[in-house]
Amino acid sequence: MARASQRTxxxxxxxGEHVRNWRKIHGLTAQLVADRAGITRxxxxxxxxxxxxxxxxxxxxxxxxxxxxxxxxxxxxxxxTEIGRFHAERTLPQRVRIPG
Length: 100
Description:
The chain has helices spanning 6-25, 30-37, 41-49, 56-65, 69-75, 82-91. By secondary structure, it is mainly alpha-helical. Residues 19-72 form the HTH cro/C1-type domain.
C-alpha cells in the first residue's frame, strides 16, 4: 500500500474532528454511535482520530447515523460542479442504444 501524503493525513484528521463534533452536537456517546452504525468503539475511535484504517463502508455508516451521509455523498457528485458538468456534457453519450 502506498504511503499517504501529508495532505491526506490532514484531511483524515479534519474529517475525524468533524465526525466527533457532529456526534457531540447531537449529544451522542461514542458507544451509542458505534452501536447504531454496527461498528466497534475502536473503529469509531479510528474514524474520529483520522487514522485512515476504517473502511469507507464503516465511515459512511457513522455519517448516516449522524445525518450527514447524504451531504458527503452529494459533495462527490461531479455534476454539482461547473467543471464536472462541462466535462460530462462533452464526454457522456446522450443516449445508449442496444446493439442489434
